[in-house]
Amino acid sequence: MGSGSSKKKSKATISTVKAAQAFKHPDKTSGKKKGKANVLISFHSKNYQKAQEAGSIIRDNGYNVFLISEGSPFALGLREQSVQWCDVFVIIATFNYQRSHYCVELANYAKDKKKPVVSLLAQPNYSPSGSVGAISLAWGKPIHHVQNSQESNDQLLVALTEKLTGVERSTVSMPTLDTVEGSGLKTEKTQGSYVCIVYLEEGVEVAKMVKSGHGVSNMGAAANTLNQVPIKMGDPKGSNIELIKGCKVFIPILTSGYQDSSKCREEYECARKHEKQIIPVKGEKFWPSGWLSLGIAGKLYYELTDSNQAYTPHKNVPDSTPMNDFIFAVLTAYEGELSEEEREKADIAALTKKIEEVKGKLDEWPPKPRNQEEQRSTPPPPEKLVTQDTENLPFNYIKYEVTRMSFNPPKPLFDKHGIPIEQKFDIMLSYQWDIQDFVRNVYMEMDMKTFKTWMDIWGGMQGNINEAMATAVENSTLMISFLTEKYQKSVNCNLELMYAKQKQMPIIFINVEPNLQLKDWIQELVDKTVVFNMSSISDFGEMDKGVPKINRLAEAARNLMKWSAAQPKKIRTDVSEEVYRLQNLLEDALIALAEKEKRKRYETCTRCGAQFENESSAGCKVHGAYYMGGTILAGRWVCCSQREKDGMGCEKANHITISRKWTEMSHKGCFQWNPK
């Protein structure tokens, strides 16, 4: 069962594989278990035919193949077994796959189990985003496979051979099907009205603690509690199925006994089937396995084993505890989440409305297709990222003592409906948790210098861990990567950095450990950008040609931000074919309207160089104060210590098209742009 045989079989050969002598045949992996390799093809039911075609090609070339959709098999145990069974995980990457929780969950679990991944981009003009984008494009080997061509089939077989080199064959038995192969997900979404906490007797004390939990008050504000929402407690011995059907948020207290209980598994699957918001709580120290490990794959769970652990503040963060984070997550989940159909419908409605508005202003319809989109330029080389030194004047470093109460924590990535917030962070901090104290200090310095920075603490991380990470990459202008040996060895850290590379994101590196031998692919990235050697707060004020290192870092970041602002705009490619079509139609119409009105499609900001529309002029940055120095002290902007006179500003502003003039102010030695 699960063979995925197809009536249409392509006569694919492994000609390309044979030509690539560097690759070994999967049945001849030196020193490993011999025999056929197992290939799991994960797809959305709407792309079943594509999965069948790929399965036939792969099977005809000597592999075992199993097909898994979002609804077949359905049982968590069988789905988990399928990932354990496979030697390589193949994703049929489409918009439908990306929007399906069950598909995304499986891809996350394959990544967590360090399964080699090959991704077939099977939708025209499509590039996945979020966790599927990160896993497909960065962790996996992406192949454009819209049409079943000889070239794309050969690329698939080469990728499989390459990914399987050195991989030990799985000894797990092939899973079976409990529903018809290729089936869609038959969910029964029910509207809920309360929070449901379920547990076994071994988790009763944790369940009580969770129900009565309270956050930490902040600057006189009342602490968050779950008293704001209705809560119903489950029966540790009897069935909770009907209780779960009526809930809005499902909180299972995970224990080793919970994992071994068929009652608990049925209840967990019920919550999934009825599309409940699930927030797992680990009620004891154990490592989930089997069906439960898939059930929480990628999810941000909360370890609340006892009151001491739940209420101990995070290090150096007195107003944030694990319980505080948990309560925030529950209250956010209680707001609800839009379904994939609702999101798609909203996108189409908004685009259609805008198209109709422009259509009424044009003489001809449809508009002629525009030329190919302008490509991004290459980020500036290292020597261009550092502000040039023209003055040999002192530049004093001031160390600010910053507390959690006096600066803004990272903004959340998702709104109350679970949709990524369309916002632009200046900087994303990528690091391994062992150096979090140091990274937090960099965050604080960047905050004092008015950068909008994202870090995975204080509510910055929500829901699916991989989804949050990928969304942070997609919504940040640049990344600061903190290099350590553990960073190099971390699967999640590597995924962050690889995805940033795939998305052509500018990166600045901070080398935290001296004499670090970097992986070749990381070294290639390091060689193209600027690197700062810092490992403690004391390094911030260390002078680099008279300028504190932390200021050098800030200058490099602002220079990259200004480069990024001037890059051409692009339409989204992580959408359905219909949304992509409407986006293109709208852009063609807007270009035609601009030509009719004898103006440019976009205005160019005279401050930052960005392209913008008159009706949407937000997104620029202006200096909040004035520029001083250059005679006794090194010249700099008072507001953010930047030395570049025409550098990127530090406060939000609208774009402008007016010419600006550098003007000396009434108090001599101080300057500003006029207009700002």
Automatic annotation (TrEMBL):
InterPro entries: TIR_dom, Toll_tir_struct_dom_sf, Znf_Btk_motif
Database matches in SUPFAM superfamilies: Toll/Interleukin receptor TIR domain (SSF52200)
Protein name: Uncharacterized protein LOC116297189
Regions of compositional bias (Basic residues) in chain numbering: 1-11
GO terms (BP aspect): intracellular signal transduction
Family annotation (PROSITE patterns): ZF_BTK (PS51113)
PANTHER family per UniProt: ARMADILLO-TYPE FOLD-RELATED (PTHR46270), TIR DOMAIN-CONTAINING PROTEIN (PTHR46270:SF6)
Compositionally biased spans, kind Basic and acidic residues: 360-376
Pfam family, any one: TIR_2
